[in-house]
Amino acid sequence: MDYFLTDEQKMMIDLARKIAREKIKPVREHYDEKEEFPWPLVEEMAKADLCGVYIPQEYGGFGAGVMGLVLVIEELCKVDGGIALALAATALGTFPILIAANEEQKKKYLPEIAAGKKLAAFGLTEPEAGSDATAMRSHAKKEGDHYILNGTKCFITNAGEADVYTVFAKTNPDRGARGISCFILEKGMPGFEFGKKEKKMGIRASVTRELIFNNCKVPKENLIGKEGHGLIIAQGTLDASRPGVAAQALGIAAGALEEAVDYARTRVQYGQPIASFQGIQHMLADMATEVEAARCLIYQTAKMMDANPGKRTTKESAMSKLYASEVAVRVTTNAVQIFGGYGYIREYPVEKMMRDAKITTLYEGTSQIQKNEIALSLIKESAGKK
Amino acid sequence: MNVIVCIKQVPNTTNVQIDSTTGTLKREGVESIINPFDEYAIEEAVRIKERTNGKVTVLTMGPPQAESALREAIARGVDNAVLVSDRAFAGADTWATSYTIAQAIRTIAEYDLIICGKQATDGDTAQVGPGVAEMLDIPHVAYVKKIEEIKPNYMKVERMMEDGYDIIEMPLPALITVVKEINTPRLPSLRGMMNSKKAQILQLTAEKIKAEKDNIGLTGSPTQVMKVFSPPPRQGGMKIDGSPEEVAETLVSKLKGSQLV
Ligand SMILES: Cc1cc2nc3c(=O)[nH]c(=O)nc-3n(C[C@H](O)[C@H](O)[C@H](O)COP(=O)(O)OP(=O)(O)OC[C@H]3O[C@@H](n4cnc5c(N)ncnc54)[C@H](O)[C@@H]3O)c2cc1C
Ligand SMILES: Cc1cc2nc3c(=O)[nH]c(=O)nc-3n(C[C@H](O)[C@H](O)[C@H](O)COP(=O)(O)OP(=O)(O)OC[C@H]3O[C@@H](n4cnc5c(N)ncnc54)[C@H](O)[C@@H]3O)c2cc1C
């Protein structure tokens, strides 16, 4: 489908495709198998200026907005859904700065992130606070020029590898949702450590670890926005970043679809290519239609965000992520089906795509949570009508 | 350090088709690319620039379409581009090509180093690099696989040999031709691609480079092509199978039989 992309956007896609095919494809199995962090590939993305596509030019980025991010993530994820996450999770960790940080903080952190010299991470989830972030126990107490931070975050993407962390903690536990604040932490701050590294089903080139704060001293200049604004910043961040997860899901699904079509054309059973069986054709038709529908939803949401900076897009972001992630799970499962027994074998690419796809229905809010957000928006919109 | 890179646009095929009546390359329908060896030359020049803070100028002699090769070089980090183009250059052999490139280089700039690819994948002669150096009367080293050191007026390189490598020191300005072992060329960058779209390309004609009429194009080419043909594929030969000992024994006895040893 023609999305009437600009020359600049086509250029970004071309470049991401080159990196995906020439640099990532030859090594994707290695990183999946060894569960290593893909630093050499992050360097490739940095050299190509891809790390700062969504960051404004005044801070050293390319200024291509959420749409730019989405296009790049999709293209990279067609080949590997895990490696691109170094970039996507950095965007997640960077959005609180883009959305709510002051000029000084932006000037301090954004240029190095845009240049790909530093990665970022986002620390919201805790063992007892997953879907319900307000149940978090991490706590920041002001003492003079500093906050003293204590607590543990779990399941944090890029943890240990990133240099910049946007972390949420309660500054006023009595105020519940209004008592949460957001801080910028740097790797190496005294009292800031990393815990256990998780072993995962998919996206194994990505690292997921605990953040441990043990009387960690955070300068008060590192508070983003005002005390008590943390949850609003987190919600704004998720609005901005969910299209990115959706694009990851879309890329994985589109990659699996391409593999499935190629395979169906060449695999012969009963004396003919399996693509000649209507049962296979209908599966491919459904897959292609769902992939295209997901793409429409995501691109349109991204454009809407870029055209109205600061305006909340909770409903559209949630719809994009909900739909694209569920499509990714269905499409990759069917790709394995079309490959038959070979689809289950690690030598072929689709079993990994199926493993990688699943995470997109879970993080940055599960599918159930996306539905809650969408429904809540509907109810609010309806109540707002006179 | 200012570096000039000479690149050639070549057809994207290893199997060059030749028109048997005219003896020229069949280029129709074949995509044009930067001569693969020249990509290593571009990368090395950009690395030198990044280390020493100079400028890289890329230059090609060719038809107007060669501009796309120059723009691609800019996307990979080159600063300036020069297209040496004139109908009068058509039909140049390696001598006339070298003369023309040397004249263009004299016209454009001060330079510390000129880098060429080892050879072009279509013409394949590997003569143009050394030819340019001779015309400019500067030292050259071909088949460079590593630059060990480069500083004002001095450079130390490793030249690839069949059985190892030579270490060569030389004064600058100089010319080197490079082999693929020297680096891994980077992909273009977004900023480079944006620059390449906007970049002004300097156009040089025969008149602008003050070329002597008798030295350029077909007239300036001492080589006369008698016939161009693809050599017939090598005929069968003999294959000896067996364990290494058996193979060696059979081979030696055959050679002895033919009185070759
Ligand atoms: C690989 C990986 C990477 C991650 N990266 C990050 C990161 O970088 N930063 C970060 O902060 N977090 C990260 N997370 C955490 C992730 O966002 C959470 O796991 C997710 O939000 C779900 O929380 P939970 O695991 O505690 O599940 P729970 O909240 O315990 O949910 C369990 C089940 O209950 C359902 N459920 C919960 N509440 C409701 C409800 N109200 N209505 C209906 N159903 C409900 C859920 O949908 C789910 O099916 C990551 C997780 C993983 C696995
Ligand atoms: C069909 C055909 C007919 C030919 N007829 C003749 C002939 O009659 N007589 C004859 O002597 N030669 C002839 N040639 C060779 C032709 O002249 C050469 O293509 C040309 O001179 C460049 O030489 P090369 O391709 O061997 O490049 P090489 O010498 O192999 O190239 C080495 C390096 O020199 C540089 N370089 C080469 N060409 C250029 C350029 N145009 N602009 C900038 N840099 C460049 C590049 O860095 C390249 O990597 C013919 C070639 C073909 C394919």
Summary?
The complex is a heterodimer of chains A (386) and B (261). Chain A is α+β, with helices and mostly antiparallel strands and 386 residues long.
Layout of secondary structure:
The complex is a heterodimer of chains A (386) and B (261).
Chain A: H1 7-24, H2 28-34, H3 39-47, H4 65-79, H5 85-100, H6 103-114, E1 120-123, E2 139-143, E3 146-157, E4 164-170, E5 180-186, E6 192-197, E7 208-219, E8 223-224, H7 230-266, E9 268-269, E10 272-273, H8 278-307, H9 314-339, H10 350-358, H11 367-384
Parallel strand pairs in A: 1-4
Antiparallel strand pairs in A: 2-3, 3-7, 4-5, 5-8, 6-7, 9-10
Helix pairs in contact in A: 1-4, 4-7, 4-8, 5-6, 5-7, 7-8, 7-9, 7-10, 8-9, 9-10, 9-11
Chain B: E1 3-6, E2 9-11, E3 32-34, H1 36-52, E4 56-61, H2 67-75, E5 80-84, H3 94-108, E6 113-117, H4 128-136, E7 140-151, E8 154-161, E9 164-170, E10 174-178, H5 190-198, E11 201-204, H6 244-257
Parallel strand pairs in B: 1-4, 1-6, 4-5, 5-11, 6-10, 7-10
Antiparallel strand pairs in B: 2-3, 7-8, 8-9
Helix pairs in contact in B: 2-5, 3-4
Residues 6-8, 18, 23-25, 35, 37-38, 41, 59-62, 92-94, 97, 101, 116-117, 119-120, 122-129, 221, 223, 225, 228 of chain B line the site of one flavin-adenine dinucleotide.
Short key terms for the protein model shown above:
heterodimer, A: 386 residues, alpha+beta, Butyryl-Coa Dehydrogenase, subunit A, domain 1, Butyryl-CoA Dehydrogenase, subunit A, domain 2, Butyryl-CoA Dehydrogenase, subunit A, domain 3, 3 domains, 4-stranded mixed β-sheet, 4-stranded antiparallel β-sheet, 10 strands, globular, B: 261 residues, alpha/beta, Rossmann fold, 9-stranded mixed β-sheet, 11 strands, binds flavin-adenine dinucleotide
Descriptive report:
The complex is a heterodimer of chains A (386) and B (261). In chain A, the strands form three sheets. A four-stranded mixed beta sheet of chain A has the order 1-4-5-8. Chain A contains eleven helices and ten strands. With 386 residues, chain A is an alpha+beta fold. Chain B has 261 residues and is of the alpha/beta class. Chain B contains six helices and eleven strands. In chain B, the strands form two sheets. In chain B, strands 9-8-7-10-6-1-4-5-11 form a nine-stranded mixed beta sheet, with helices on both faces. In chain B, strands 2-3 form a two-stranded antiparallel sheet. In chain B, helix 2 (67-75) runs antiparallel to helix 5 and helix 3 crosses helix 4 (128-136). The longest helix of chain B is centred in the N-terminal third of the chain and has 17 residues, at 36-52. Chain B is globular, with a radius of gyration of 22 Å. Classes of the chains: A alpha+beta (386), B alpha/beta (261). The A-B interface holds A 7-8, 11-12, 15, 18-19, 22-23, 44, 47-50, 53, 62 and B 186-191, 193-194, 197. Bound molecules: flavin-adenine dinucleotide (2 copies).
